[in-house]
Batch of 2 targets.
Target 1
Amino acid sequence: MNSMMTMEEKPYPDGDIRSLYPAELRALAESLGEKAFRGTQLFSWLHEKRVQTYDEMSNLPKSFREKLEERFPLRHLEVVRRQVSAVDGTVKYLFSLGDGNVIESVRMVYHHGVSVCVSSQVGCRMGCRFCASTVDGLVRSLTAAEMLEQVWAIDRLDGERVSHVVIMGSGEPLDNYDNVVRFIRLVTDGKGYGMSQRNITLSTCGLVPKIRALAEEDLSITLAISLHAPNDEKRRALMPVASRWTIEEILDACRYYFSRTGRRLTFEYALASGQNDSARDAEELASLLQGINGHVNLIPVNPVRESGFRRSGKKVTEAFQNKLEKYGIHVTIRREMGSDIDGACGQLRRRYMSEGDMPV
Ligand code: SAH
């Protein structure tokens, strides 16, 4: 069989060579008439050394490099805006993709290292009422390479290794399942960027069958569930996805995730004044989560122009926390980062899109 035919019959996942696993690069090298080990070298240039051009891959034959250049041109994310918070040094990036779409990524420094919040889609189709990323719907999913590039670009531009990734930028990661899993495997490959799987958190609004599938991937990442309400009725008012799966179905999938991975879950709960922050809500939430291996992360809701939600006050937030703790639920309150730079949840891209441009 003609080896080129094989390549065309089995198209690569998203057309970007940086989305390929080492074994796939070895097969690609062979299909281009090279020895398999050339694929291993290629992986190292792309993922470990992270050079920007084929020219720099000095131990690869020139003819191979030329073929690669022709078939898999390397396009890189471009920085459209870079805003640094005067409050805590958080950096918010607006990147443009090869097709002109823009995405945002955030770099945050914690005592445990540098964390990057990665977008998984341009826009989102989940429709959560409080979220800016979803206002104009889904444009497209990102490739694994486009997610990797957010980490690599920030590593390069800020000159420091990224130790943690949270997949909490724009998009619903489990609505882009294959590319996101590929991204996680690639960024944690010991011969590539080499991040620890334990330092990755994936946040989902709760696509139940995908949570179950993820449990079977044999990954040791943290799963965060965007719960935001203590019962289905309230959740349906905030999140359209709640009409598809009940909280009980989500929690069953979470128990399964814990049984397969041994990883404790995080339940995200954005407190919105008068919506989900009463003492009764806290009690309901506590009874819901009894016996589950996980903790609640309380997030003061970020006011988004389109949504009209207001954040709960300090007293209400503390009372909510105390109530949960009284029932034995472990609670953390998310520290707000980059509040002065549209730090939250798709707001930079929205401002950029609606104003065409904005002051640097
Ligand atoms: N689609 C995924 C991940 C992206 S959002 C998810 O739903 O989990 C990451 C987190 O930010 C989610 O918990 C989301 O509900 C929350 N979020 C979105 N908009 C917010 C806002 N305006 N204020 C506070 N949290 C928000």
Target 2
Amino acid sequence: MRRPLVAGNWKMNGTRKSVVELIDGIKGGLGHHPAVEVLVCPPALFIDSVASQLKGSEIRLGAQNVCQSTAPGAFTGELSASMLQEFDCCYVIVGHSERRHIYGESDKLIAERLAAAVAGEVTPVLCIGELLETRENGTTEQAIAQQLDAVLKLENGVELLRQSVLAYEPVWAIGTGKTASPEQAQEVHAFIRAYLAKYDETLANGVRILYGGSVNATNAADLFSMPDIDGGLIGGASLKVNDFVAICKAAG
Ligand code: PGA
């Protein structure tokens, strides 16, 4: 059984005040929620205060990126997995489309970041997904395979993915209000599992694959009802207490 996971990616949003209100609201709205794992990924500056606010709560804390180096040193602007660990982050997003497309992070760098997260005992949430033009020219599966291959070709690639969560996020659906239909998303999720099964059946069946891209309180239940969708990575709607709580409840 794959336990559903709903993760809020807050991106570069929030103030000291709004973050406290958001966490209070989510804690109060969710209560005890054993059927679904809930994760929030605030901007790094807020991680410490959110960690304090989450003490004793079931809600998990994550970061939005991690350095590819496990050793401390000259990596201006980066955070290591051991730093994230020290500040109670058990997950970290890697390879988000904004990192890939605004900051030019390559498949190779993303695979290295993922490996560093696993080495530091922080679970990576690896984002993969196709651009609109890729979907339109019918090469979505090749694009997804290429993003997975970057990790699979590492020496211990299968083991690294076994310790990861995947998030399928079609780039054309992120922040656009255009969600993939449950059938469109399911098709790609099933492809990802079939592709991984060529390497390792247990990995293919066990790895959690989240859907992300304009998930909201209205469309979440239909998406989460698909057999290969194990929850969601939520951007905009994770900043609104009622929407995020409703999405979490739709998964459990
Ligand atoms: P969105 O973002 O829900 O605002 O589309 C999803 C994401 O970028 O993870």
